[in-house]
Design a protein that fits this description.
By secondary structure, the chain is an all-beta fold. The protein is 1% helix and 43% strand.
Length: 358
Amino acid sequence: MVSLLGCAEPEEASGPPLQQLVLAADAPCTFTEVIAPATFDTTERVGVSAEGRVLLIGTRPVQSGSSLSWLAEIVADPSGKPAVTNLVAGTLGGTQDGKLGGAPVGDACLFSGMAVHGNLVYAACYTDARVAFLQVDLTQKTVRAGDFTSCNGEPSTTPCASIDIYPNGMAVDPQGRIYASSMLAYVNGAVDGAAIVQIEVGAHPAEPGELSFRYRPWAGSNFITDGIAPNGVQIESGTLYYAAGADINAVPILPDGKAGRLRVQYHGIFLTYIDDFFVRDRSFVAARTLPGDLAEVSPPNFFGISRVLGTCRLPRGAIPSSVTRMPVSRSAAPLFAEGAYLVTAYYGGGFYTLNRLR
């Protein structure tokens, strides 16, 4: 079995699987604090573009002078140290001119989910039961925004009304279809009680800054068998994985884009809660809000059972909310080594890299 956490040699794109140390249950881990909580007091999700740009969503503290929810980028300052560049403020309308750097338009909202696909960034933004869906094109430097309403759902209903959905985990399949978890699936029956909704972006309207999209229920929910409060979503090899409560569920994406039969791949311990995770070869590194650690979860054995191989905690009691990994790329950002784990912390703030075992 190949372990995901620990110290590692860089992985070659066409070489053998990455060989790493197994993370012992009581082994300490070493982290680097890349961005301090004083700069980003909550960090929700992180993603990496095709060009190796590291993007994250979260909120900035009042003393930073930009106390909003932001889609931001981690860059090198003139001295080569990590710094934050704000890209798009969390507002329901995106930007006034539909361009990066444009003035925010619409009511302030909280970025709740994000996925990066090539050089496109998709993000959901929530406030007062209203939800916007944004597409940011890093190459064209454009920002487009649209609203989740009853009119662009399938089936659609008029007149247009806000819907009860809180998109959190998000992922994009190779065909460009976006999948978002609905944390309110078990509360208000949002979007026909679906745990996962599928979103397809349409042709861009002539109006700059507008995003046309349709969404539909994709995977149903049953909190007794699937787990409560759907959260992180990831896709690997034609299978969509999503966290719900203590569990990680697996749903095949069929050739026509519909959902196959759901199975629970990992049954977590009662009263633990997985926010997000990184997946490779059906192994997971899970960011758990409860008990507040990173947990390495094995692939299923002959009996279909996965287990926790080991755990580690962030500095100063910060609680991880997402984890991903720098891909192997010749154009990878120089701030982060290939294969490095990137970790956000919604509670406790800051942005971290997991370095190695001591």
